[in-house]
Amino acid sequence: MKIKSIFTIGFLSILFLLPLTRVNANSLSPAITQTMLSSGDTFDSKILFTNTTNKTVYILPTVAGYNPKTSSILVKDTYFFVKTDTETFKVESGATISLSYKIVVPPNLPLGTYFNLIILKQTNDAGFLNPQNSVGAVDNLSHLVVLHI
Predict the structure, then answer these.
(1) What is the Cβ-side half-sphere exposure of residue 19, based on CA atoms within 13 angstroms?
(2) How many Cβ atoms are within 10 Å of 136's Cβ, its own excluded?
(3) Rounded CA separation 118/99 (Å)
(4) Strand-pair partners of 60
(5) Which of 87, 98, 105, 85 lies closest to 43, judged by CA?
(6) The pTM is what?
(7) pLDDT (tens digit, 9 = 90+) per residue, 64-123?
(8) How distant is the alpha carbon of residue 5 from its chain centre?
(9) What span, in angstroms and rounded, lies between the C-alpha atoms of 112 and 6?
(10) Where are the beta strands (DSSP E) in the chain?
């Protein structure tokens, strides 16, 4: 019992003595868009990306299919109904940009629910190699688009 108390006190002491590191987390709003459309319909929407880091970032929107049952990104045998710009956007530190996209329902799409992701890839991020990123995570964000036909 005494060893357990000493270990707990020592662990907590070390934890409180560690230096605090600021963690930057860019934001994307809204996280999900759900819409109900018929075959051949179109729908315009937008998402807001906010750069909360202290540097300029460059983001590239890409569209991918998504399987919610397995939480996996699909690259084949899926319907891509989201159309977005394929250019790289420059976002200054502290700035927010609006990214427009369009949902285009193919006329032959069977009834059901379909999922696409708009992935905002940072093209200037080194991820694990970035010395200012103490967590070692890559700063890609995704917006889920749910289409009900």
Answers:
(1) 3
(2) 9
(3) 10
(4) 121
(5) 105
(6) 0.74
(7) 999 989 888 887 767 789 999 889 999 998 899 999 999 999 888 889 999 999 999 888
(8) 42
(9) 59
(10) 27-29, 32-36, 42-50, 57-67, 72-74, 82-84, 89-91, 96-104, 113-122, 141-148
HEC profile of 64-103: EEEECCCCEEECCCCCCCEEECCCCEEECCCCEEEEEEEE
Residue 50 DSSP SS3: strand
The pLDDT assigned to 82 comes to 93
Q: Six-digit token pair at 13?
A: 């002491």
- Nearest residue to 98 (alpha-carbon basis) of 118, 125, 123: 118
Q: Determine the pLDDT at residue 140.
A: 80
Structure tokens at 81: 């109904």
For residue 127, pLDDT over 50 is answered with no
**Are 28 and 101 within 8 A, CB to CB?**
no
- The answer to whether the CB of 52 falls within 8 A of the CB of 25 is yes
Q: Could you tell me the end-to-end alpha-carbon distance of the chain, in angstroms, rounded to an integer?
A: 62
Tokens of 15: 């934890």
pLDDT of residue 75: 75
CA distances (Å), origin 107, targets 38, 79, 83, 143: 8, 12, 15, 24
